[in-house]
Hints:
Layout: E1 2-5, H1 8-14, E2 20-22, H2 30-40, E3 60-64, E4 67-68, H3 80-84, E5 89-93
Amino acid sequence: MIRVVLPFHLRTLARVDGEVEIEVEGPATVLAVLDALEARYPMLRGTIRDHATLRRRPFIRFFACKEDLSNAPPNAVLPGPICSGSEPLLIVGAMAGG
């Protein structure tokens, strides 16, 4: 079971409180987690990644075990604590401006 923490606006859209738990088949990767997340919460399709290219949207970042995985290959296996459920995968809405 993978624990995922969504930003407030996506939790509101998905109508969930706090973190969500996602079951992933096969290796736990960002791609697999997003596939499972969008399958369970179809209203999130297109909010985290582009519909056509499946690339991460600008201003969305992925963090796991205090590491920024935003630019890592989407099919890279997530760290062990994420896979075991002891640490959550954080999906963060980044901010820009000064």
